[in-house]
Amino acid sequence: MNTFLVAFCVALCLTVAFGQSLGPCIGGECPSGYTCQSGSCNVVSSTTCADIRNSRGVNECPSKSYLCNNTLYYTLMTQQCPRTCNRCPTSG
């Protein structure tokens, strides 16, 4: 039980630190200004692939890059730090 609480609190803190998602996508759709990424509605970036900045406008992803391939944070880091984690979608 304690391990679950610790993991949950860490994931929650990272989500708040990196920026906020609106919530889950409903039928693969999100409200205007958001995009569905890995099942969550995230703010649409003005660039095709960019890390999400925190509420102060700071990109904390480079300092958290060691979490990119950690199985506990893989999804969160893919959603919040695609550029830092080299997970930008490719086209063509």
Describe the model.
The protein is an alpha+beta fold. Helices cover 26% and strands 11% of the residues. It has two helices and three strands; from the N terminus they run αβββα. The longest helix is centred in the first third of the chain and has 17 residues, at 2-18. It is globular, with a radius of gyration of 13 Å. It comes from Panagrolaimus sp. ES5. This is ShKT domain-containing protein.
SSE layout and pairing:
Blueprint: H1 2-18, E1 23-24, E2 34-37, E3 40-43, H2 74-80
Antiparallel strand pairs: 1-3, 2-3
Protein name: ShKT domain-containing protein
Organism: Panagrolaimus sp. ES5
Q: List the strand order in the largest sheet.
A: 1-3-2
Distance between the termini: 46 Å
Oligomer: single chain
- Helical content class: 25-40%
Q: List the helices and strands in order.
A: HEEEH
Tell me the Rg in angstroms. Answer: 13 Å
Which stretches are poorly predicted, pLDDT < 50 over at least 5 residues?
1-18
Q: Report the portion of residues in β strands.
A: 5-15%
The count of helical stretches stands at: 2
Strand element count: 3
